[in-house]
Amino acid sequence: MRSNGTIDRRARDTARVTISDLSRALSLTKGTVSRALNGYPDISEATRTRVIRAAQAMGYRPLSHAQAIKTGRSCSLGLVVELSQHDAHRPFLAEFLAGLTQAASAEGWTLTIATSESEADTIRIMRDLVRDRKADGFILQRVLWEDPRIAYLERENVPFICYGRPKHRENMSYFDVMSEAAMADAINWLTRLGHERIGYIGSAEHYAFSHARRDGYRAGLTTVGLPFDPTLMVEGALSPEHSARATRQLLALDRPPTAILCATDTLARGVYEVANTLGLQIGSEFSVVGYDGAPEGQAMWPRLATFAVDNRQAGARLGEMFIARMQEPESPVTQSVIRATFNPGSSTGRPALLSEQLAQHLADLAAVTT
User: Fold this and answer.
1) What is the pTM of this model?
2) Are 290 and 306 in contact (CB under 8 A)?
3) How many other CB atoms are found less than 10 A from the CB of residue 285?
4) Structure confidence at residue 91 (pLDDT)
5) 3-state secondary structure of 308
6) Helix H segments across the chain?
7) DSSP-derived secondary structure for 16-75
8) Which of 13, 53, 322, 366 is deepest in the core (most CB within 10 A)?
9) How far apart (Å, rounded) are the C-alpha atoms in residues 255 and 291?
10) What is the side-by-side strand order in the sheet with 287-289?
11) Which residues of 62-81 are buried (b: 16+ CB within 10 A; e: fewer)?
12) Nearest partner of 348 among 183, 186, 182, judged by Cα
C-alpha cells in the first residue's frame, strides 16, 4: 500500500490477484481477508468494507471452486430450458439470456444453462446441478400455474425466483409483466375504435400467464361495459394451427366478432391466415391484437398491433433480484411487476361492418369461392 493509503494499482497488472496480494496490500492476515470477503460475523463492518473496496480496486476475483468449498456456494445462477415446450426455441430466449448474463457478470456470478427433454428430466437436472455445486438456485422461466419445479425446490429448500406469477405466489419472489393490464388496455383500445363484439383466443391453461391474460380480457370487458359472452372466448391454443381453428369457430357464429384479441403473437398468425384465406381485410373489415412484441408479429402484414415485452430487461431484473436475495437470505420476498408497451401497428381500425353485416359478408365471400 502507498503512504497515502491508496491501493497500488500495479497489482492489477498481475495475472491474477490473490488473497495473499490483498493481505500484503492491506497489512492484514490472509485469514482476516478471507473471512471479510466471505461475510463472517466476527469481522467488523469497517474492516469488511475496507477489504471489499481493496478487492474491487485490485480486480480480485475468487476461484469459483474454492468459493464453493468454503461457503457452499458456487455463485452461479441455474436455468433449465425444457426443449419439449412448444416455444422453447423462440427468439425471446436469446434476449432474456443476454439480460440474465449481464446481471450475473456485474456481480461476479456465472450462469449455468442446461436443457431437458421433459418435466421429470428438468427436476433431475436441477437436483444434479445443486448436488454438484454448479448452481446455487434457479430462475424459473415460463412458470406454470401449478409448477412441479416450484414444489420440488421448496421441498428441498433450494432458492429460486419466478418469471411469472403461479397460483400460490404469496410467499415467493417473482418478476412479471402485467399482461392482464395489457389485455384490458386492448379491450379499451378496440371499443374506442367502435368494436362491440371482441373475441379472445387464449393459450393453454397450465401456463400461469394464460390465467392473467384471460382475466384481463374479462376485466377489460367489464370496465368498458360490454357483457361477457363465453362463445367469444376460445382457450387452449398453442400454435397458429390451433388459433386458425379457433378463428374459424369464432367467425362461424351468428354474431361473429369484428376483432380478435390473442394471448400471443404466435396465435395471431393463425388469425391472419384465416382472414387472408377468407378474403377479410385486416385493419379495416377485421381487427387483430397480439401480445409479446415478437419479431414474427412485426413481420406480419399489415403490421400486428401488439404489446411489446423487454425480455432483456426482464432477464437482468431477475438476475439482480436473485443475487440480492442470496446476499440477504433473511430479507422479505421480492415481488416486482412492470407494464408492457403497446405498439399500435396497422392491424386495427374502425369496424367497417357490424357483427351481423360481417356474418353476411363472410357468407358472400364463401359463396364466391365455392
Assistant:
1) 0.80
2) yes
3) 19
4) 65
5) strand
6) 19-26, 30-37, 45-58, 64-71, 92-106, 119-131, 148-155, 179-193, 208-224, 240-251, 265-278, 295-299, 311-327, 355-369
7) ---HHHHHHHHT--HHHHHHHHTT-TTS-HHHHHHHHHHHHHHT----HHHHHHHHS---
8) 322
9) 25
10) 233-234, 198-201, 259-262, 287-289
11) bebeebbeeeebbbbbbbbb
12) 186
Q: Which three cell numbers stand for residue 349?
A: 381500425
Kindly state the cell numbers that stand for 235. 382457450
CA 370 to chain centre: 45
The cell for 236 is 387452449
Helix, strand or coil, per DSSP, at residue 177: strand
By C-alpha distance, which of 315, 298, 316 is closest to 307?
Answer: 298
Amino acid at 209: F
Residue 69 pLDDT: 47
Cell of 340: 408492457
Query: Cβ atoms within 10 A of the Cβ of 222, count?
Result: 12
**What are the backbone angles phi and psi of residue 158, rounded to the nearest 5°?**
-100, 130
Which residue carries 497489482 as its cell? 11
Residue 128's pLDDT is 95
Chunk the chain into consecutive blocks of 10 residues (it has 370) and report each block's average pLDDT, rounded to whole numbers: 39 61 89 76 84 85 53 82 68 86 88 92 96 94 95 96 95 96 98 98 96 98 97 96 98 97 96 95 96 86 95 94 89 93 96 93 81
Confidence at residue 350, expressed as pLDDT on a 0 to 100 scale = 96
All 3 cell numbers of residue 202?
387464449
* Residue 255: count of CB within 10 angstroms of its CB: 15
What radius of gyration do the chain's Cα atoms show?
Answer: 27
Residue 166, classed as helix, strand or coil, is coil
DSSP assignment of 62-109: --HHHHHHHHS---EEEEEEETTSTTTT-THHHHHHHHHHHHHHHTT-
Using CA atoms, how far residue 135 sits from 109, 124, 152, 250, 258, in Å, is 10, 13, 15, 47, 50
In whole angstroms, what separates CA 276 from the centre of its chain?
31
Measure the CA–CA gap between 229 and 214, rounded to whole angstroms.
13
